Structure formats: structure tokens, C-alpha cells
Amino acid sequence: MEKKYVVGIDIGGQTAKIGIVDARGEVLAQTVIVSNKHTDAGEFVDYLAQTVNTLIKQTDVEGQIRGIGVGAPDGNYYTGEIQGAMNITWCGDKVIPFAEMLSKATGIPVSLTNDANAAAMGEMTYGVAKGMKNFIMITLGTGVGSGIVIDGKIVYGHDGFAGELGHTCAVRHNGRHCNCGQNGCLETYASAIGVARTAREWLDMSDEPSSLRGIENLTSKDVYEAAKHGDQLALRVFKFTGRILGESFANFIAFSAPEAIVLFGGLARSREFLEDAIVDAMNENVVFLWKNKVKLLFSSLKESDAAILGASALGWEL
Amino acid sequence: MEKKYVVGIDIGGQTAKIGIVDARGEVLAQTVIVSNKHTDAGEFVDYLAQTVNTLIKQTDVEGQIRGIGVGAPDGNYYTGEIQGAMNITWCGDKVIPFAEMLSKATGIPVSLTNDANAAAMGEMTYGVAKGMKNFIMITLGTGVGSGIVIDGKIVYGHDGFAGELGHTCAVRHNGRHCNCGQNGCLETYASAIGVARTAREWLDMSDEPSSLRGIENLTSKDVYEAAKHGDQLALRVFKFTGRILGESFANFIAFSAPEAIVLFGGLARSREFLEDAIVDAMNENVVFLWKNKVKLLFSSLKESDAAILGASALGWEL
User: Fold this and answer.
1) For site-directed labelling of A225, which of A35, B132, B252, B291 has its Cα 20 to 30 A away?
2) What's the rounded Cα separation, in Å, for the pair A228 and B221?
3) What stretches of B15-71 show up as alpha helix (H) in DSSP?
4) Contact criterion met (CB < 8 Å) for B162 and A256
5) Separation between Cα atoms, residue A82 and residue B128, nearest integer Å
């Protein structure tokens, strides 16, 4: 029987999304399971495999699945392993041969990459980067991830871990401490957590009136809501965040001369407060060759579909 | 007749080196002409073409040349043009369709790229990066150039200008002014000119005794000689330069996860004073994944051959 469908799986810290996708990028069926209830990888994989097989059966496409593509934090395309994903309860600092385990449990070939690379494949195959051969995908979520596309292909590098742009240095001196052990990483400023951190710092440093004062466990969503209501401090937090992003993007452009930088993820939904600051800082800092030439794009894929579609694109390679 | 030779041409601000190369990377014959006597590109190309044809005739390989590969500052692989090379007397801010002109004048197909990319091809084909699929070439000369190799291929990017790592920002605030119009570019610190600039700044800022005091038009060569003789200020200048390089390399690694960074060019000959500082700063600043894993290599090709060999490697593609 012809194998004309693929399965895309997006694994996050809280949930795993699973979808069955056809060659035109239509998601025929999808489901979500929790991903943080297991501490044993084997048990999670069994649970996931069961869910995948049930979905395949319900969709009536048994025997027609070409492959399973998986996007996961710290996923390595070369080895098929998830390596030291601290936000995944059944991984932590361990190395999980995930592709192999899932392939055994489902009887279907599995290919795996990290979540930002999967998002980049999704944009390239079905999204705003369709037809582009050179672009950089930046995922602005809890952290900052990246997927780099050169000549139509994801850059994996020598060891499969290329594209850790969230951990390039954005602030060299007195930079914020990052979970990775370094200081000043882009991620400590330009992620959802970074935005909340900036707001808290600024509230502490002055007595400027702001609707953000007194909110416990302030999140980037609070800052977004305050900005929506015209809160000046909140608006400046986004401007500052956009500026840091734009400065970093200027450096990234000098590396691979992309046609566009594509933003994706929760924080990218604050586009109205970020976009101008990013574009200005990017064009001010970039080499003259590229001034006002590199596009800044925002993902157009439905967030729920994008991750599945991106991961599924890997399945066609199998 | 089988075309089993290529011509490699390296164009610099003062001279152009021309060589005839066989498939094993043997330079059969070579010559040098001045490149800064003409202000008209057409006249220079005619002079160059004459020299090439004479060399071919003298070497008795007429009709056996597969192609000519050219490495030139601001050379664009996609268009074959030299675009705004300020240090080239017959270019300046103009756009010169160099590949087309030279091909017409010699009757031989011509392929062109920038000098750093040519150097990277040379190292990959014949030098310390032989067999490597992922590395970054950094040329430390008057300026700082770069050639990035991913998956065995030079990265050209969307417009052919990828790899301007000398113009990534090394010092964000109060950085030195760069010829490119930006401030704080890596090139303003880590080039031959940058080293001299650091030494001059430090001499001005203190009255620390140094053998460098009183030297007019201080150059990086003076700093090197002083370091050789144990001059403490000169030694610290190299340490500082190495640290800036290492910090930047840590960011480059996060982009493409290379197997090695390869240094080439005049300033790379100060290896004894730079190497430890670079390696230390690189490993201190890089994401933990790559700590002590990415090699720092120095070009092993004879400088006179390397440029010709690198450019000639392009000739085989024709």
C-alpha cells in the first residue's frame, strides 16, 4: 500500500501534540497528551506509541504512514536522541535514544530534531518562509530557540546541535545569569521569562507608577496586558526587548545573509509592541549591505498546527 | 584535449597572485603583478589577462585550462562582481563585473568569490580543514574576513555576501568606529590595524614603560616584535585581542556548531601570543555543549600558495 501520510509529534514540557498529516500539509487528525506525568522515558514512550497507534487506527490510515517526525527540546537529528532536556520530566540530564525507542514501540521509522528546527521546517514547507532557501527561525517562548536554514536545508553542524542562538551573548558585561551557566545570553532578555524579568527589575529600580506594581509572580502576559492598556513602563519593556533582539539579529545576518528572520512562539504574539523596535535596531546595527533589506516576518501558521506540521515535514525524509 | 589544470588568482589591495594548479594541488607555475597601479578596471583586467595567457603559454598548458578561480575582496560568487571594494584602486564604490570581463579577455570560464571564502576552500581542499564538513575560516589581516563551511559547502546566503563576521559587534557600548560605518565591529579590535590601535590607545592612556613608546606609525608588526622581546604592554595587547576573538568565536559556534575554527592571515602568525587567550575566552563563553570541543586551528598552507590554491579550487567547479 502506498505510504502517503506522516505523523508529526511536537513534544513540549507540559504536553505532546500528535497529528496525522497528508502531503499537502492538511492535518487529518490530531490529539494532545500530557508529557509531564512520567519520570521514566520508557513509560512515556509506550503511552505515546499507544496514542499514535490509536489515532492511526481511528483515522483509518493503518499501513499508510511513511514515517514519524518528532520535534523535541534538545533533540539531535544525527543521533535521534534527546540529550539533557532539563524541562522534560522523563529526561532531565539523561540521554534518551528517543527515535529508536519510539520506532520500536510503533513499528514505524522515526526521525527527530529539536523543536526550533521543526518549526523552521514547518514555516519552510507550509508557512511564511515557503519558497525561501535562506532564513533564520527564532522561537520566542519560555526560552529563545533557533532553526537556521541555508540553501533550503536545516543547519545541523558538526554534532547536530547548531542553532543555539538563544545562548549567544547579548549583554557582555554584567549580563543576566542564564540557566545554561553563562551570563548575558539573549534568552535571559528576549524570552517570555526575560520580559517578566526586565519588568520586575525596572519596577524595583524606580517608583514610576505602573499597573504592574503589586502583581505577584509577574509574567510576560501581564506585561502584554499592561502594554495593551497603555502602561508606559510595560511599553518600554517591549521596546527594550525588541532592541536587544534587533541588535542580535544584525549579528546573525552577518553570518548567513538570510532573506528573512521569522519569529514564532508565544512572545511573538506581542508583535504590535516589538516589531518597530526590532526592525529599527536591526537596521541600525547591521552592515550597510543589508540595511533595510532583510525581512522580519511573523509566523502565519496556527500555533497548534505549526509544531505538528514542522515535525511532520521530517517524516517525509524517511 | 583534456582540461586538467586550473588557474587560481588572488587579488589583494597591492598585488595579484596568479598560479597554475593541477588536480593534486601542485602549483606548477606562479607569478605576481601589482594591482594598485590602475584606476580603470578594464585596463587592469587586460593587464591581468595578458599575464595569465603568458603564464599558460610558458607552462605549456594551452587549451588545457578548465577554468579560472578568483578570490577578491567583496567578490560575489552569485553575480561574479566585485562590489564596492574600497581598498582596490580600480573599484572603489563601483560594481565591477569582474568574472565576465576576465572571461572575455582570456577566453576561459571564470568563477569568483571573496578572498576569505577562497581561503576556506583552500584549507578544505588542501589544508588543515581537509576532510572537514563544518568549519569557520577567519582571516586576520588588515581587516577580519570569514568563510563559513557547512556540510562541505561555502555559505553564500541569499545574496552571496554571507560571512561578514568581521562586522559582527564585539563591543556594544563605546566600541571603536569601523570603516563600515558601525561601531564596535570585531575587525576594529582583532585585525592588524586593530592591534596597532589597541597599543596606541594603551600607550596614550598610561605612562607604563614600553619599548613601543616613540615609534611613529606603530604597526601590529612592531607590537609583535616588542612581544617577542618580552614587552609587557605588547603581550597584554595580544592577550586582549585574543580574548575579544575568543568571545566572538563562542557566538559563532552557537550558530553553526563547527568542528573547528581555522585562523589564517598575517596576524595569525602571532599565534604564540594569541592562542591561549583565544582558547580560554572561547571555552569560557561558549554554551556547555561545546566547551573544550571545538578545535582552534592555524592554517598550515604556505601563505603564498594558500590564496592561489583557494581560488583555484573554484576553477574545478567550472
Assistant:
1) A35
2) 58
3) 41-58
4) yes
5) 32
Sign of the CA dihedral with A218 first, then A222, A223, and A226 last: negative
Contacts of B112 (CB under 8 A, 6+ apart): B69, B70, B71, B72, B75, B76, B77, B80, B81, B82, B98, B99, B314
Please name the amino acid found at residue A2: E
For residue A296, the SS3 value is strand
Q: Is A130 on the interface with B (CB under 8 A)?
A: no
Is-contact A12 A265, C-beta < 8 A?
A: no
Say how many Å lie between the first and final Cα of chain B, rounded: 16
pLDDT of residue A153: 95
DSSP A299: -
How far is it, in rounded angstroms, from Cα A318 to Cα A273?
41
Q: Which residues on B lie below 8 Å from A155 (Cβ)?
A: 150-151, 255-257
Q: Looking at residue A304, what is its pLDDT?
A: 66
Q: Do A158 and B182 touch (CB under 8 A)?
A: no
Side-chain-side CA neighbours of B246 within 13 Å: the count stands at 23
Mean pLDDT by 10 residues, chain A (318 residues): 90 93 92 95 97 97 96 94 90 94 97 93 91 96 94 96 96 93 96 97 96 95 98 98 98 98 93 98 95 95 80 88
Question: A157–B258: do the CB atoms touch at under 8 Å?
Answer: yes
CB contacts < 8 A, A to B, total 119
Alpha helices in chain B (DSSP H): 41-58, 98-106, 115-126, 187-190, 192-205, 220-228, 232-256, 271-285, 303-315
Closest CA to B297 of B278, B284, B311: B278
With beta carbons under 8 A apart, name residues in chain A contacting B158.
Answer: 133-134, 257-259
Nearest to B68 by CA among B20, B127, B1, B125: B20
Selection from A106, A115, A112, A3 nearest residue A55 by Cα: A106
CB of A235 within 8 Å of a chain B CB? The answer is no
pTM value is 0.93
CA angle centred on A303, ends A299 and A305, rounded to 5°: 110
Q: Where are the alpha helices (DSSP H) in B170-302?
A: 187-190, 192-205, 220-228, 232-256, 271-285
Q: Which helix (H) or strand (E) holds A201?
A: helix A192-205
Pairing of strands B110-114, B65-72: parallel
| Phi, psi angle pair for A255, to nearest 5° | -80, -60
Q: What's the order of all strands across the beta sheet hosting A135-140?
A: A153-154, A144-150, A135-140, A260-264, A295-298
Q: What is the ipTM of this complex?
A: 0.92
The answer to whether residues A255 and B148 touch, using CB atoms and an 8 Å cutoff, is yes
Task: Dig out the grid coordinates for B78 from the structure.
Answer: 552569485
The answer to whether residues B162 and B156 touch, using CB atoms and an 8 Å cutoff, is yes
Map residue A53 onto helix, strand or coil.
helix
**In this complex, is the C-beta atom of A250 within 8 Å of any C-beta atom belonging to chain B?**
yes
Residues of A in contact with B288 (CB under 8 A): 180-181
Cβ B5 vs Cβ B312: under 8 Å: no
Cα B143 to chain center, whole Å?
8
Cell of B132: 572537514
pLDDT category at B1 given cuts 50, 70, 90 is low
Are the CB atoms for A77 and A160 separated by under 8 Å? yes
- How many residues make up chain B in this entry? 318
Hey, what's the cell of A295?
525581512
